[in-house]
Every structure is written in structure tokens, then in C-alpha cells.
Amino acid sequence: MPRYYFHVLNGKNFIDDVGTEADDIEALKAEAVAFAGGILKSERPTDMWRGIAWQMRVTDSPVPDGGQTHLTLSVTATASE
To answer: pLDDT, tens digit, for every residue of 12-42?
Structure first.
């Protein structure tokens, strides 16, 4: 089973050097959404509310710029006041 790494690149980079195994792309997508949700919930990034993208790159390498990127999840948000 292939191993994938979830790297968060938002100024306070989180580099995943352990990774997670996934059976297929659908399982990988579900894991990516759950992982991102957990981080967004716990860290409450304020930069994304100013239009600065919060990004997670799912690769097959423990190095964010190494290997192949299989999924990219980007989140930006704005608030109307």
C-alpha cells in the first residue's frame, strides 16, 4: 500500500515525515479532508481570513518539493463586516 505525506504550507510549515498509507485515491481524498479539518480546527489560522491561502500538499515524499504531488487542498476565506 502506498504511503502519502500531508505537508501544510502556510508560513508555519508543517512537514509530515511519517505519512499515511491509503488504498486508493478516494481514501486519500477522505484522509486529506479529515487531516486538513483537524488542523484548521485546532490551529485556527488567521491568515486565511485575510485572503492568504492555507495549503496542504499531499505527496509521495517526506520532502514537500520531492516526489509527485497527488492532491493539493487550498483554503482562503474572507469575512464581511
So the answer is: 788 999 999 999 999 999 999 998 888 888 7
Q: Which helix (H) or strand (E) holds 20?
A: strand 20-21
CA dihedral over 46, 14, 10, 57, signed as positive or negative: negative
30 secondary structure, DSSP code: H
Number of neighbouring beta carbons within 10 Å of residue 68:
8
Let me know the angle formed at the C-alpha of 14 by 17 and 1, rounded to the nearest 5 degrees.
35
Whole-angstrom Cα Rg for the chain:
13
Letter string b/e over residues 35-61, b meaning 16 or more CB atoms within 10 A of that residue's CB: bbeebbeeeebeebeeeeebbbbbbeb
